[in-house]
Structure formats: structure tokens, C-alpha cells
């Protein structure tokens, strides 16, 4: 049996089937390249949902992980460590926020933002106890915990997992009037992705986030942006909200915060909002551990030192322009920002999966999202030559199969 077949058989037998991955078994990675157990090399055009913006196994991250893990790995927050204070300072200086709260997974950071905004609603805004409402968008993706899936508009994410958490209202994505109408005296927050990733790299109408920010300010509602996938360079800005010149009340980050080296997430906000947490209110054993903080500090420095934000803006524009030159009977349109592009297929294209499988045969790993969108999101360290190489395969797949 081939190594690939053996791994797939073992995973199918012993692992729960909550994913349907492409049948490629990876064993190595470096930069934008990954290698499977048969020795075949691929360009990674998913970058672990933008966790690997800095590229696979970045040598600086490997070094920091090795050094910090040999020095001190975990203290819990019962004691202090000498990495968390510096990550907190560097993150706040980089983003212009006053405070941060570190967690591990993205979903935990979203939960943290939900808890903070509810408590802020009761203690600062004066909402009656247990009446807080948070407005979210149709097509959202904020993670997989029970509370977060409670306000998903995707039935599969909720089916069989009830009873669901109340206190959320869903409006159409990009519809500022709907937001205005949904706000009432109990509204504590509007939670939104500046660009919806899992929904298929959906870019809202220009001005939507700006209007949303104004509405939030006028009504004393917190604007919470989920930048877990869109943040840290992916869209050609450090944070996607910068494209609309707004200053959200809370920013949620994760994924590329560690360059894919370790689970690290965080919530950034003001003293007024994060100040609602008192000792014992909230926490996590691994949140803010020394490895996580050391890795995140280095991951942020890499984004700056290697100009990944600027690269994403320039190369993303180049890639989108080149894609638009491809005439394909299957493509409805292309959309995106920075190195984050959705190829939206027509109904008659037979679904995005078969295109992703054809790309895999040509050495590119991409993942379909929502049946008819091919998502393009390579590590931001990709070069123009590598993009040109990928374009040959993409063109072939979009025009010949
Ligand atoms: C991935 C993602 C999450 C969840 O992060 P996990 O680390 O998988 O829990 C939340 N929001 C957005 C926008 C994401 O892309």
C-alpha cells in the first residue's frame, strides 16, 4: 500500500470524519511549497486559511519556537512570564489599541469578544441583565463553538447541536439599512468580518464598514471586527478595516498571528471595554503562554521585516488582473482584495471541487468554498515568478477541463 493510501485509511478508520480533505498527505513545507509523502511538491494556495501568511516553517519562527520551548513553555496565568508583557505592548503599539487579551484558537477569541461586549453592555451601557443583543451577518463564519454556531446562517453548522445560545440577530451582509433597523436599546455590538472568507471571499459594498462604524458610534454599540482571516496582511493592509478608514472598538486576530507555528489568538480593544474583565472572570490555561507569545512576537516582526502587507497589495493586484484576462466558460467573475481572491464559477461549471482536484494534479493546492468558489490565498511570501508559474496551471484548468 502506498504511504498516501495508508495514511488515508488510518485517518478514515480512527479519525472522526468532520472534514473532507483533498486526498494529499503532506509531510514537509517551506515557504509557499509543501511536499507529500510520495515526494510530490505543491504550491500551497490556501495557506491554512491564511494562518501561514509568513510561509511554511519560517526559519525565524522555527528558531524562536525551539529556543522558547527549551527555555519555558507554560506557566499558566497563575504566574507571570517574561514574554506576554512584550507581546501585549508590541501588538498594541502596532495596532493603536490600548489593551489585548490573549487566547489560543480564533473561536476562543471570538467568544472573548462576545463576553466582553455583553459585560460592557450591562456594566457600562446599562442594558438590563440578560437582554444583551449582538448583531451579526448572514453568511458569517466566526468559529465552531456552541455559542458561535448559534448565530451561523449555515444550517449544517447548527443541525443536531441545539439548544442554541440566544441573543443574536442576523442581518444581510453589506446592508447598512438593515443594521440601522436591527439596532435597539439592547444592542451591545455588531460583529462582522470586513471581508467574508469562508463565505467565498465576499467583499461588501464600498462604504459599508464606514456606515456600520458610524451607526455603531451614534447608537453606543461596539463595532467588533473579526480579522482572524482578513487581518495581518492578507488583504494588502495590516487590517482589512483600514481600507475604509474606520477604527473598530474591538479587533479579533488569530491564524497568522503565529505564522501557523502555534495556536495564538487575541482580542484588541480599549481600556473601557477590556477593563470589564476582573480577575477570575475569564481565562485560558494556555492563553498567553511563553511559547505562544514569543512566536507571535516574531511572526509580527516578520510581517514588517519582509514587507508582507505591501507584497500582498502589489502581488494581489497583479494576480487578480492576470486572472481577469483568462477567458473561461466556467467563470462567472473574480473578486478579492490583496492576495485573497475568489474565483466564482457559473452554475453549469459542475462545482469548484473538480477544479481544485485538477489544480492538485498540476501542483497547486487550493480549496473550494461554498461549492462554487475556488479560493486563492497563497502565503504572502510568494514571488511574482511563482505567481506566473501558478497562472499557467490555473489557466489550463479553467479553460481546458
Ligand atoms: C478561522 C476563523 C475563525 C475561527 O478560528 P479557529 O482558530 O479555527 O477557531 C473565526 N473567524 C474567522 C473569520 C475565521 O476565518
Short structural summary:
The chain has 14 helices and 15 strands. It has 401 residues and is of the alpha/beta class.
What structural keywords apply?
401 residues, Aspartate Aminotransferase, domain 1, Aspartate Aminotransferase, domain 2, 2 domains, 7-stranded mixed beta sheet, 4-stranded mixed beta sheet, 14 helices, 38% helix, binds pyridoxal-5'-phosphate
Q: What is the percent of helical residues?
A: 25-40%
Overall residue-averaged pLDDT value? 97
Task: Report the radius of gyration as a whole number of Å.
Answer: 21 Å
CATH architectural arrangement of the largest domain:
3-Layer(aba) Sandwich
Counting DSSP H or I runs of 4 or more residues, the number of helices is 14
Count every beta strand, where a strand is a DSSP E run of 2 or more residues. Answer: 15
Overview of this protein structure:
- By secondary structure, the protein is α/β, with parallel strands linked by helices.
- The chain is 38% helix and 17% strand.
- It has helices spanning 3-14, 47-50, 59-71, 84-95, 106-125, 146-150, 155-158, 176-182, 208-218, 271-274, 290-305, 308-324, 353-361, 384-400; strands at 26-30, 33-36, 41-44, 99-103, 133-137, 168-171, 187-192, 222-226, 250-253, 265-269, 331-336, 341-345, 364-365, 367-369, 373-376.
- Strands 4-10-9-8-7-5-6 form a seven-stranded mixed beta sheet, sandwiched between helices. A four-stranded mixed beta sheet has the order 1-2-3-13. The chain has a four-stranded antiparallel beta sheet with strand order 11-12-15-14, covered by helices on one side.
- The longest helix has 20 residues, at 106-125.
- The structure holds pyridoxal-5'-phosphate.
- The site of pyridoxal-5'-phosphate has 14 residues, from helix 5.
- Residues 49, 105-107, 110, 141-143, 193, 197, 226, 228-229, 254 line the site of pyridoxal-5'-phosphate (PLP).
